[in-house]
Predict the structure of Ornithine carbamoyltransferase.
Amino acid sequence: PGNSLMKHYLQFKDFRAEEYAYLFERARLIKRRFKNYERYQPLADRTLAMIFEKASTRTRVSFEAGMYQMGGSVVHLTTGDSQLGRSEPIEDSARVISRMTDLVMIRTFEHTKIEAFAAHSRVPVINGLTNEFHPCQIMADLFTYLEHRAPVGANGYDLGCLKGKVVAWVGDGNNMANTWLQAAEILGFTVHVSTPSGYEVNPQVAGIRSSDCYKVFADPHEACRDADLVTTDVWTSMGFEAENEARRAAFADWCVDAEMMAVAKPDALFMHCLPAHRGEEVTAEVIDGPQSVVWDEAENRMHVQKALMEYLLLGRIG
Ligand code: CP
Ligand code: NVA
């Protein structure tokens, strides 16, 4: 393992629009093979290490099932059952784990931790969520949007159809919000952001070049007006549990409900990265309603991540 062309995937902006077009086309083909029970095992003899410092359902299942389907194997580590929880330096862990595996996925707290790991890793590192970013999720969300709304051309989905679209972000200025802003800047759409005061997105943390890719709205209904996609997330992200009570009070008006969906475009989709809390950030009517594509969104984590792992390990196919 180890080569000079090695890429990591730590933030959405690590890839260009043209790389996303390629990845979405690979994901589409890989998904089709999966649905047809066609064996596709280009990652035989490759090993993915997955390091979880926070809980997960979707990220674990999608990476683990995806890697096995592609012929590889996985090693699952958590803080509690590895030396990571007994203060072995992250740099040392990176040196060791990356000498025995081909690819590493990490879910952790501060983004600086995954950067430190990547800086000492011999193999590509994938961000499976940090306090600041969740790029694999936004890749799945965009793929889901394209599946539902874009025609398939000779080269797959035309990412040009995302230009000028409006994504309404209702809720916390968190890792998902930051990643949406990066995606908007790269792919040419606009995010209408509405957060309670004190929970705004911070463009510096989001790592965007300019503020052209988003607009701020005090009223969440206004953020949803004429949106092509309405999306939200938990009020309290992992690692922020101590703020739970204060957040419940502050976020009470940031519940995506039928009224918000009614002011969005008639064909607007609803997305949520999950896990969801019905009656908090979204009503049951909306998340279980006809505009919601949350189950496709969850499933697509696996298909886009299979394309991502293939790309990081084998480069472009064909
Ligand atoms: N959306 C998402 O990343 O889910 P998990 O926390 O279950 O992995
Ligand atoms: N913002 C949430 C996303 C969970 C997938 C969190 O960080 O906990």
